[in-house]
Design brief:
The structure is a single chain. The protein is built from 13 helices and 16 strands. It is α/β, with parallel strands linked by helices. It has three domains: 94 residues, Winged helix-like DNA-binding domain superfamily/Winged helix DNA-binding domain (Arc Repressor Mutant, subunit A, Orthogonal Bundle); 141 residues, Response regulator (Rossmann fold, 3-Layer(aba) Sandwich); 134 residues, Response regulator (Rossmann fold, 3-Layer(aba) Sandwich). It has a six-stranded parallel sheet. A four-stranded parallel sheet has the order 11-10-12-13, with helices on both faces. It has a two-stranded antiparallel ribbon with strand order 1-2. Strand 1 and strand 2 form a beta hairpin. Helix 2 crosses helix 4, helix 6 crosses helix 13 and helix 9 runs parallel beside helix 10. The longest helix has 17 residues. The protein is elongated and about 90 Å long.
Length: 394
């Protein structure tokens, strides 16, 4: 017999009105306790419950989730929920105890700065993968960003030490300390803590890695400028000797040489990296303005440099793209409302985080004493053509 809403959904508990989902859970619990739904019996469908209780489907699902958490019902994909059998309740109790024991803490070590959206994108990818996993994980984020290179190294070293000593099962690392913290990364490996590096990996350091082919992506970017008719193309880069910096310069040189253009020494300008993530473009702009024959295009090592250089040139009366075309790298502009959005190379940062944590969990699932060979996963990039680059006027 169909029950009325008032009969099935009690409104009060100790004088306090319960939320709709909790009231529905209480009503269903009462039926189970009274034997109206016997052990092993199917419950009505979500649609039938929604019609009977005059509730939306999300409320129904919340109530069923509450009962499932209390191990009163069993929910299986593609089937209606059913009342738990006594033997299943005992098994679920054991499973709950096992899952509590198996709870693992993972970490992400990356620069936390509002001016660089790549890091939050990587972390979104990590979280999305963990949310979709059945096993429970706790995620801790460590920050290796600072105003100076020396402080960045100190923070990264301190974070790696904490990861070694705080019972963390594995870590995804966006390495910022260059060669200075490689010994600390090796100590982490020696401690048996799996790690996956993202974005950059020094060739001398053997580890799991997820990133891109920086040289190939840079070649594609510079080839686009060459196809637009530019030949005097300047490369703005950093003194930082990371593999990312070296590979993008290599791609720049290879693209130029493939068209028979030998880059002049004054076309490659290396800025000091004493101030981390805040490129000192004033000296680069001074150098550009001093050249007898100024470059007609610039390939910047990343979007931060490109945007800072654009602003510096604008202050000196040089317009982008009318007077000079500028190419970036990273695709930060998808988050921007700049009137002249940047032509750039898109990096799949969110996918990078997903692949990294997937590789990390694979490592954690391996039997101890049988480590597999390290894996390097290179994700595809794509050229994003916007309005900061135009053909060279004849």
């Amino acid at each position: 017999m169909r029950r009325s809403k008032d009969e099935s959904m009690p409104n009060m508990s100790n004088g306090v009105r319960l939320p709709a989902a909790e009231r529905l859970a209480v009503a269903l619990l009462g039926r189970i306790e009274r034997g109206e739904y016997a052990p092993g019996e199917w419950l009505p469908t979500e649609r039938e419950l929604a019609a009977e209780f005059r509730a939306d489907r999300s409320t129904i699902r919340s109530a069923l989730s509450s009962l499932a958490e209390k191990q009163l019902i069993v929910r299986e994909t593609g089937r209606r929920p059913r009342v738990s059998l006594p033997s299943e309740t005992a098994l679920m109790d054991q499973s709950t105890r096992d899952s509590k024991v198996a709870l693992q803490t993972l970490a992400v070590l990356s620069p936390q700065t509002p001016h660089y959206p790549a890091s939050p994108a990587i972390q979104r990818g990590v979280l999305q993968m963990l949310i979709n996993k059945e096993a429970p994980y706790r995620l801790i984020v460590f920050d290796n960003n600072a105003d100076t290179r020396a402080e960045t190294v100190r923070r990264e070293r301190h974070a790696l030490e904490s990861i070694r000593n705080e019972g963390i099962s594995g870590v995804v690392v966006w390495h910022q300390g260059s060669v200075h913290t490689l010994p600390d990364l090796r100590l982490l490996q020696e401690a048996g803590i799996p790690m996956v590096l993202v974005d950059r990996c020094d060739p001398s350091f053997a580890c799991d890695f997820v990133g891109i082919d920086n040289a190939a992506a840079a070649r594609e970017a510079v080839m686009h400028l060459l196809d637009l008719g530019h030949q005097r193309i300047m490369h703005l880069t950093m003194e930082d000797p990371t593999i990312t910096v070296r590979d993008r310069e290599q791609g720049y040189r290879e693209a130029m040489m493939s068209r028979g253009v030998r880059p002049e020494p004054e076309w490659i300008f290396r800025m000091s990296n004493a101030v981390h993530l805040q490129p000192p473009v004033t000296t680069a702009a001074d150098h550009f303005m001093s050249l007898a024959e100024r470059p007609t295009a610039v390939f910047a090592m990343n979007d931060l440099i490109a945007h800072a250089f654009m602003s510096e040139l604008d202050a000196r009366g040089v317009r982008v793209p009318e007077d000079i075309s500028i190419m970036g790298f990273d695709d930060m502009d998808r988050h921007s409302i700049r009137p002249s959005p940047l032509t750039t190379v898109h990096q799949p940062f969110e996918q990078m985080g997903e692949k990294a944590v997937d590789l990390l969990l694979t490592r954690l699932a391996e039997p101890s004493g049988t480590p597999a060979a390290y894996r390097h996963i290179l994700l595809p990039t794509r050229l994003v053509i916007r309005t900061s680059c135009i053909p060279l006027p004849r």
